[in-house]
Amino acid sequence: MERARIAVAGASGLIGSALARSLAADGHEVVRLVRRSARAEDEVCWDPAGGYVDAAGLAGCDAVVNLAGAGVGDHRWTREYKKAIRDSRVLGTAALAEAVAALDTPPRVFVGGSAIGYYGDTGERAVDEDAPPGEGFLPELCVEWERAAAPARDAGVRTVFARTGLVVAREGGAWGRLFPLFKAGLGGRMGDGRQFWSFIALHDEVAALRHLLDTESLSGPVNLTAPQPLTNREITAAMGRVLRRPTPFPVPAPVLRAVLGEMAGDVLGSARVVPKRLLESGFSFAFPGIEDAVRAAL
Fold first, then answer.
1. Where are the beta strands (DSSP E) in 148-213?
2. Which range marks the domain in which residue 171 is found?
């Protein structure tokens, strides 16, 4: 993509901030959506829960990327927090998609955040973008999340859903919590360790999002995961090797359920997700293996 004006919602989060830095470094104009009054020319006010977007600030944008949403792993899944997780994604996506659709000159592409939680527990079965949604809170959430972008798609805007896996990074997300434990020698497999984790290095996540922006042939769901998902047991061993720490302390499933509540089902569940459409579109991973991804994060 030539020099472009790109709006990013969720630009203060782990992935959004990395994407904004990457785009700005290559000379693109990044417009950040903020949940307060805009204080700078590169800010646009929005209220995702209230369904409000200052659409005038999106005028002239070539692309809109929505990565906003309450952290899935930040709190126990109480009824109230599950509502916050849902509303921050579904209502925010709907507000942005409607604002995009109402523009006299809409952007060329709308990239909406989504997650591999769409597929639910796949066991040992590998799934790609053609697989149906699973059952449970996260699959239902992802279906609603993606459906909320319909106004942009119906307005003729190329709409892509980035179904992101577990991002390997020090700064946040699941791995942001794992690194300190493993560095302290307290890391270990979770449950029986046979569940598949579909990961992606933060560098590759950002590169893949930019690939979605640039690749005109891509629309609909695209899995953003490394080519070879691994079991939790394999990832635990790799973390130990890279960090040169023992991994002697497995966390039994009952303990995880006691600590995490309903969310433990997704930690112990298996998501063997492959990036079929990303690979078919010519994307090349810089850090396809788990050890490379961990070293890149360090």
1. 158-164, 166-168, 196-197, 199-201
2. 5-297
Instruction: Give the Cα separation of 68 and 267 in Å (integer).
Output: 22
Q: Which long-range contacts (CB under 8 A, 24 or more apart) does 76-84 make?
A: 76/260, 76/261, 76/262, 76/263, 77/137, 77/261, 77/262, 77/263, 82/137
Q: 45: closest CA among 111, 95, 4?
A: 95
Contact 239, 247 (CB under 8 A): yes
Scored b (16 or more CB within 10 A) or e, 257-268 reads beebeebbbbbb
pLDDT (0 to 100) of residue 259: 52
How open is the CA angle 18-26-4, to the nearest 5 degrees?
A: 100
Token pair listed for 137: 């809170």
Band (pLDDT 50/70/90 cuts) for residue 261 is low
User: How remote is the C-alpha of 211 from its chain's centroid?
Assistant: 15
262-275 pLDDT, tens digit each: 655 666 689 999 99
Q: Indicate the residue type of 95.
A: A
Identify the burial level of 41 via C-beta atoms within 10 angstroms of its C-beta, where 0-12 means exposed, 13-18 middle and 19 or more buried: exposed
Q: How confident is the prediction for the chain on average, in pLDDT?
A: 92
Number of domains in the chain: 1
User: Rounded distance, CA 145 to CA 179, Å?
Assistant: 30
Please compute, for residue 68, the number of CA atoms within 13 A of its CA located in the half-sphere on the CB side. Answer: 27
Using CA atoms, how far apart are residues 290 and 199, in angstroms rounded to an integer? Answer: 8
CATH at 203: 3.40.50.720
pLDDT digits (tens, 9 = 90+) for 156-208: 999 999 999 999 999 888 788 888 888 888 888 888 899 999 999 999 999 99
Paired tokens of 28: 């693109």
